[in-house]
Amino acid sequence: MASVLGMLEERKTAARVRVEGLREEVARLAEVLEAAEIELDRRVIAREELVEALAASAAETTAGAGTEAEAEEEAVLWLAPVQGSTVPPWPEGLPVTVLAPDYQRILGVLEQQRSTGHGPLRAKEVAVELGLDATPAKVEGVRSKARRLAERGWLFLEASGAFSAGRRPVAVPDAGSSA
Question: What residues contact 144, with CB distance under 8 A and at least 6 apart?
Answer without folding.
Answer: none
